[in-house]
Amino acid sequence: MPAYRSSAEAEIRVEVVARLRAILPGCRIINEVNVESFGNRIDVLAVGDTRLIAVEIKSERDKLDRLQDQVAAMRRITNEVFVAVHEKFLKPLGPDGRYGVVPPNDAAHAVTWAYPRLARDGHVECGVEWFERDRWQKLTIGLPPGAIGMLWREELQSVCRSLGERGVSKLTMNECIDRIRWAMTGEQITKLICATLRSRKCVEADEPMLVAA
Q1: What CATH number has the domain spanning 7-126?
Q2: Domain ranges of the chain
Q3: 26: region left, alpha or beta (phi > 0 left; psi from -120 to 50 alpha)
């Protein structure tokens, strides 16, 4: 069953998903992704062939007290992190907001999307356009090392079997990851993670995608 969410969050999620599909055509959208190494859920994950985008949603009914930790955790496992916040969390810039608004400090190190999207003065990410990336940040080619922790134990074991490892059923997740990192290049691991997530059966997501062997 789909995870419970408030109507306020659902409204923002619709906009987020539409924007992700525009940014990463052909991506698979997965909602409420549980990651063992992450210690929390990712609200929305867009999975491309070699690229992962994570989004944390903060509706007008939410708080930002955990946002810094959530952003830091998502940055360890995905290429890009976005925070979609209700406009009530935007901060005035200058006395009485005379210079417009800026994203909340809690969203530092992530690209901030403000909802609803209105014509605003100030920080460009709080205007009518939703920027894909900070202009001063360059998109990494491969996924961060922690991204492989998004795979389940049985998925990791399956990879190890394909690599010719023995006694795979007794290997822990960390042991599987160690062997995969030894045998595969960064490019191969990035493609492996994305292909696995695109084909995995999920409770609330686009239909699994067939991945060429």
Answers
A1: 3.40.1350
A2: 7-126, 145-199
A3: left
